[in-house]
């Protein structure tokens, strides 16, 4: 295992053990639930959006280390971003974990820079794990774009 792979594995395990923003969010403008009946992962995501800016994001739930770490890292990555930037980050993250990332000029766009979320790039080698890595992200997108949808059972 390379040093970078070890670092990424450590990062994922740390976020699984001590997830960030692991709580319900009072005063949220949107809430959605992600459910993966294939593996039993389940996460509720809350978001507070004001004037097109993601002010706060939180989650609660349970799942494998990949899904919980992804949810945790997602909350820190999108907080303070515009909704458009959060959308772009989700699209880029999805491209990477599904193995559809390209080396196009888009990578130079700071909105598409994954930073520590690059730890999930190896997920693309295990297609069944893609759902784990993206479950909370799909719930976040529902919470942002359909805030009145409430709890939705989703299988990304």
Describe, in plain words, how this protein is organized in 3D:
Helix 1 (3-17) packs across helix 2 (65-78) and helix 2 runs parallel beside helix 4. The chain has 156 residues and is of the alpha+beta class. The chain has helices at 3-17, 65-78, 83-97, 127-145, and strands at residues 30-36, 41-50, 53-62. It has a single domain (3-145), classed as Sufe protein. Chain: A.
CATH topology: Sufe protein. Chain: A
Tell me what the CATH architecture is: Alpha-Beta Complex
* Radius of gyration, whole Å: 15 Å
Mean pLDDT, all residues: 87
Alpha-carbon distance between the two ends: 30 Å
Beta-strand residue fraction: 15-25%
General form:
globular
For this entry, what is the oligomeric state of its chains?
A: single chain
Number of helices: 4
Q: Biggest sheet, strands in spatial order?
A: 1-2-3
Unreliably modeled segments: none
Keywords:
4 helices, alpha+beta
Topology (SSEs and partners):
Elements: H1 3-17, E1 30-36, E2 41-50, E3 53-62, H2 65-78, H3 83-97, H4 127-145
Antiparallel strand pairs: 1-2, 2-3
Helix pairs in contact: 1-2, 2-4, 3-4
In short:
This protein has 156 residues and is α+β, with helices and mostly antiparallel strands.
